[in-house]
DNA sequence: AAGGCTTCCAACCGCGTAATA
DNA sequence: CTATTACGCGGTTGGAAGCCT
């Protein structure tokens, strides 16, 4: 049985909205509030699809919408969140008050994606959306080159010390992975592929001690991530179990890695080890993400190596206040929740 | 000035999933 | 429990505007 269309297509206006239509929609929503989008056009007297009305309202007509002029701080936050969350535009937008997913998505596709790509912002590149379906196996992953992330507006002149980026989704050597579509989906982009994690149960990371990092990754991130959980909640004793995890994470991110071999090898190893070394056992990632990371926020940023050179902040440097690591991590917490 | 090309972004489309009957 | 409906999301499209030759 097919899916019924969201609305009758006949006789509906399409394309750009007129100010008259906007007024009608605003007035209707002012009186009736949001919701019931399907019936809204008929009730409001609009020749539009309910979906279209919803989109128009959410993206343009809502009173709290902030349009244009995405500042350098917002830009940087978008980049960080995208690195963490991937193309989860609505989640990213949720961390940018007044911004919509559509605006951020467009901004990314027209500005940031190119910028990130050009600057090779880290060795584990988040593939821009248009390349996410990249099928040239021989050219993937992209060259792992560690470069200085010179984000617009964040230069030495204005004394900005960005928070270090930590990849929760490790990059892995795709050449050694099975070539199943699932693996490719998860590994072609160094982002958490979101749909897979939006299951109704919590995602658990269960590293197996007798497995390699790669195997663990496949088991936990790829395998579990793409299959609905069984509904069992492996509840954790937060204070005790998590504290150990925090210690590991803390030691991991505060230890300046010693590069060996090519930068590509090093970077891949480091990032792929992150999740595995982070011995969370049966810890629910949502619990982890929801937890207080304030203790691990005191890092300085070495502009030579954003992802890898995480040296402890010195005493004479100001604490990070703008976007803390904890808030960044918390930004990803919601979608792990039930 | 005009035509072609590129960029940007508002809007559309289809799918997944939660909610409801 | 199953079928259906509605919502929300991310990918994509297409037209307007700007740029280039």
Automatic annotation (TrEMBL):
Q: Does the keyword Nucleus apply?
A: yes
Q: Which residues form the HTH myb-type domain?
A: 9-65, 66-116
What's the source species' lineage? Eukaryota, Viridiplantae, Streptophyta, Embryophyta, Tracheophyta
The UniProt keywords, alphabetically, are: Activator, DNA-binding, Nucleus, Repeat, Transcription, Transcription regulation
CDD domains tied to this protein: SANT
Q: Name one GO molecular function term.
A: DNA binding
Compartments (UniProt record): Nucleus
Under which name does UniProt file this protein?
Myb-related protein 123
Using the record's annotation, list all stretches that form the Myb-like domain: 9-61, 62-112
